[in-house]
Amino acid sequence: MATDGLHENETLASLKMEAESLKGKLEEERAKLHDVELHQVAERVEALGQFVMKTRRTLKGHGNKVLCMDWCKDKRRIVSSSQDGKVIVWDSFTTNKVRLRPAWFKVLRPSCRALS
């Protein structure tokens, strides 16, 4: 131990130095663990079973790729926007489009909060 054969003042100083040294080593080891490449972490992750998705309903109306989609709080309506610039509100039960009253709504960020 660092305190064998030392006076009280020397003991305190040597213990502080030893503690600082150990803190430094600990930080180095932590840094090694945090600096890992993705493929090394991926090797440790267990593989998932095959995930099968089924198409339940298809919503047709956008002329280009859909950029984003969000469910409303009522879990009945869906808002989607696409690269063609359209924002469409859907009734998820009937797959019909919900008519929007104000035309300016189509320039807003898609969100169901305004509809709930």
TrEMBL record:
InterPro entries xref list: G-protein_beta_1-5, WD40/YVTN_repeat-like_dom_sf, WD40_G-protein_beta-like, WD40_repeat_dom_sf, WD40_rpt
Coiled coil regions in record: 12-39
Keyword list, A-Z: Coiled coil, Repeat, Transducer, WD repeat
WD repeats: 59-100
GO terms for biological process, alphabetical: signal transduction
Family named by the database record: Belongs to the WD repeat G protein beta family.
Name listed for the protein in its UniProt record: G protein subunit beta 5
